[in-house]
Amino acid sequence: GFLPFNPLLNKSLVSLQMVELYHHLFMRCPRLGVQPFLRALCDLQGVRFKNNLSVQFSSAYDLYIRLTESVRSRVLTSLDRTTPDWRMLNTCPPCQYEVEGEEPQPIRMMLAVDGNNSLKRFERRERKEDGTLLGPTREKPDVRIGGGDYFLQPSQVDLWDEPNWWKWVDWTPMEKADRIACTDRWSNLNEAKTARSFGSFDINGIFAGFCRHSFVLAFSDMMKTGEQYVCPISEPMGSLAVGYDIACGMVDKIARGPLSQLAKDERLQMMIGLLHGYAHNRLCQLTFLMLYIYGAGIEDLEVCERFFSHSNALASVTRYMSKFRRRQAISSYAYHRDNFETYANLSKFIHSNYRQALCIIGHSKETAKTLRDLGLLDTEKVIGYIDEERAYLESRNSTPEAELLTSNYYRALVKLSDCREKLRRARRTFRSYEKGELSVSGEESLYLSERQMVNEQELEAKLLVDVQSLEERLGLRADQRWCKGSEHWKKAEELVAMSKYQSSLDKLEGLIVARIFELSRMNVSGTGYKMRQHIGHAMQKRSTAICSALENYNEAAAKLTPPHKLLDWDDVLNYTYLSEFDFLRDTRSDVRDKVWAKPAVRQAMSELFKLLRAQEEICKLNIEIKRLVTYMKEEEEYLSSVARNIQRTNAALAYQIRRYRDERRRFNSTHHKRLDSIRKLPGFAPINVHYFHPGVGLRRQTVQGHVEEGEMELQADDNDNDDDDEEDDGEGDDQESEVDDRAEAALAVANDNVL
């Protein structure tokens, strides 16, 4: 029952229960490091804390983790679950435990991927003589890797890096496509920035993948780089829908990469989560926002942000750990969270989404009435407005070259005209000094007037060259130069006015984006008091800047022909999506007469798409309920059968299999109660009751071989002890059976009949 601090000199020991207590405390509160835990123990025992205790306890903790991982590995071996990707492909029952007879779904599984730079690691280096930190490394060699099957190795990730694509012989390179406008808004899409190392950090964070229920699929370290479109899945994600905050920028990379054909064959769908949808333009939203994607349901797909809000607590502990211990801590935390948090909340997730979807469907009559009042009687036609809007925005995505030349020519003519006017005044002033019409206080005044005249002459010559160059590109002769007040001059003047209008709109848009993200940041878990105060002061200053930008916008909008829509303070503050600005941005046609551009119609269309997604969510949840109840039944049966089969030959291993089974089984009774309560929700359709009964899993495992008669009686006895009683609340086996299992395991270990 004790673990040594040193494998050779066992002068000091620590109890296994104490190490296990720290492990569970650390999993629940990752901010709790070894040192504060030991200081608390020293305070309780009335002894002085010594620094070497931290090193000794860390060694014992490493041994504990190694023992638990070794036991878990042997348990998985006995369960025939040792393939490299078994955990990733079977971690989430509602997503991956398919059942016979399921209806085909438009999206079979939804993932979310994102990077997080909080879990970076500080690289230990020697100090140089000049005082800088980036001297030679002083890291101790450590051949241990850590992370188990949660982490991808750097070699696996580097294989798909763009510079290594040439190694794929069956792949044909493609040229880069034009960048979407909103990709410039994201710093993690700027490879020049993300490729820059953050000072003395050798690991700049993690890139993670999750299913929509928050189960961890895989991690990969961001080594000396940022988010470089690395997808942390070792198997192709063809038939999956993947949510990513910069999905619009990732599509081009997938299309040009070695997996492009596979992505096409499997209909890979990239999506943008609800939170990050704020900062994407309208054209990008129509393509990637989940509200407009068939089969997406009502999921926001922001599971990465929710996981990172909890895992960020690890940062203060893992920042200065070795590579091995850092990966060990992150993977242990992920395993604990998957089995004791995420799995425990599966039925809560399903119940919450089911209730929310039924609530949206409950307002379907109001939505239908609104559509009728607006004359939108054909649902298919309303859905087609999205394609019409997308086609319109695509046609307005770039400014024609003729307009750019016209605007530049007009500006050059204006500058030339202003310069000539200043030159005339300078010449008049200089001649007045020469004729004595103006009093000269000295040679200095005469020199200054002459110098100003010469400067204006030089500037006129430069501007004249620019004007002549633009005239050549426009095909104009010198005698065809535009004059102020001419028809060409007026049209160009309107173009420049609209350019100024767009510039003021860009500034207003940027300030609104900052306000939206600051408001969301105020409510993020883990934001400290000082940060909240800082954000609050920034928002006060931002409000003043927004008022000023709003005045500039309205001034520019009023000068247009015809005048564009003026905005007031309430309009700006009610803009929840950045795409609201996109219709104000058009400079070549007025979209206010379009049906889909009217505010009332757009609001009704949004409600219609929410209703459609809610109906899809009900279908998706029904299938997930069927999978979950089937998994709970078949998983318990399989694990209990394996434990019974090896009880006689290896009681210790059988005991560990039961413990492995109970990690998730303890929550099954709660799942059944929550799922049963769904049938009592208002609006639940009784026709869906059959989804709440177990089916037959396509991936179910069975015990191979026949059981002899002598063992049948033993299995019947064990059945009484292993099976749950519904009134038991799923707390485990009977107390008597638990004592027997422990006794048999202890005897097996005492007789060297170990795992």
UniProtKB/TrEMBL annotation:
The annotated regions of Acidic residues compositional bias extend over: 711-741
- Lineage, top-rank taxon, reads Eukaryota
Q: Which residues form the signal peptide?
A: none
The record's Pfam families line, in alphabetical order, gives: KDZ
Annotated segments matching region Disordered: 711-743
The name this protein carries in UniProt is CxC2-like cysteine cluster KDZ transposase-associated domain-containing protein
Question: What organism does this protein naturally occur in?
Answer: Lentinula guzmanii
